[in-house]
Amino acid sequence: MSTLCEIRDLSVTYDDQPNPALGHVTLDIAAGRRLAIIGESGSGKSTLARTLAGLLPPRTRVTGEIQWTGGTPPCPGRDLGLVFQDPSSSLNPVLTIGEQVAEGARQHVGLGWKQALARAQEMLERVRIAQADQVLRAYPHQLSGGQRQRVVIAAALAAKPTILLADEATSALDVVVQAEIVALLDDLVRDAQMTLIFITHDIALASGFADRLAIFKDGRLMEAGPTASVLAAPAQGYTRTLLQSHLDLTSPPLVEEAAT
Ligand SMILES: Nc1ncnc2c1ncn2[C@@H]1O[C@H](COP(=O)(O)OP(=O)(O)OP(=O)(O)O)[C@@H](O)[C@H]1O
Ligand SMILES: [Mg+2]
């Protein structure tokens, strides 16, 4: 499996901050695979996402390097599709769904308006939105939260990116919709052989489909490796804690069950 990029000793410090948001991160990202970036709030996950997408705020200090295969970083919106936590803030309330999904194809692929709308409909169908032709003419407030996140994914896919970067893309959704969106992302990246970088605080969710896990805490990469080996033998005490807290929350209460 070829490498998409090599992150070497990467540190990122925001302008007004004394401490780095990311410190000395070294990590390889494989092309065409599903990598989950896992960590609690403030562990630096979104900072890594912004660094990969070239979207850090001005005056952020970055040391170390990211080497992209092919030499140049991916262009966000074209080579790199982005999906964030809150679909409402990603969508413009006064533009139709069709206009917004078509925009990426117009801007980055240079399709004409009519072709871009056809692409938009194709993408809405691909994210399994029913009656896509009608949804094209709808506005964001007319859709459910889960549908809106599907629309954002469709918009991210419209320029046919090679990488999809999803930052807490399912965290605002209820568990059933969350599972549907994860299954959808899984299918989409498999079909298109895209690289998926899936950011979440939920190790259980990520373990269900990611090929590799990278566990962050306080801006440090604690552990990275194939999902099965991280789960079978978590090298770091922190990963064990994450796994344990998940087990505590989701295991059935055996004693009580036996008593009823
Ligand atoms: N624009 C910014 N300016 C200054 N500090 C920031 C900025 N963005 C993030 N930080 C700080 O950098 C650290 C890492 O934040 P980051 O957003 O990367 O974490 P995260 O793992 O994505 O957290 P969450 O799960 O809450 O989204 C935090 O201490 C945060 O306060
Ligand atoms: Mg974040």
TrEMBL record:
<keyword id="KW-1003">Cell membrane</keyword>
<keyword id="KW-0067">ATP-binding</keyword>
<dbReference type="InterPro" id="IPR050388">
    <property type="entry name" value="ABC_Ni/Peptide_Import"/>
</dbReference>
<dbReference type="GO" id="GO:0005524">
    <property type="term" value="F:ATP binding"/>
</dbReference>
<keyword id="KW-1278">Translocase</keyword>
<dbReference type="Pfam" id="PF00005">
    <property type="entry name" value="ABC_tran"/>
</dbReference>
<keyword id="KW-0547">Nucleotide-binding</keyword>
<keyword id="KW-0997">Cell inner membrane</keyword>
<protein>
    <submittedName>
        <fullName>ABC transporter ATP-binding protein</fullName>
    </submittedName>
</protein>
<comment type="similarity">
    <text>Belongs to the ABC transporter superfamily.</text>
</comment>
<dbReference type="InterPro" id="IPR027417">
    <property type="entry name" value="P-loop_NTPase"/>
</dbReference>
<feature type="domain" description="ABC transporter">
    <location>
        <begin position="7"/>
        <end position="243"/>
    </location>
</feature>
<dbReference type="InterPro" id="IPR003439">
    <property type="entry name" value="ABC_transporter-like_ATP-bd"/>
</dbReference>
<dbReference type="InterPro" id="IPR017871">
    <property type="entry name" value="ABC_transporter-like_CS"/>
</dbReference>
<keyword id="KW-0472">Membrane</keyword>
<keyword id="KW-0813">Transport</keyword>
<dbReference type="InterPro" id="IPR003593">
    <property type="entry name" value="AAA+_ATPase"/>
</dbReference>
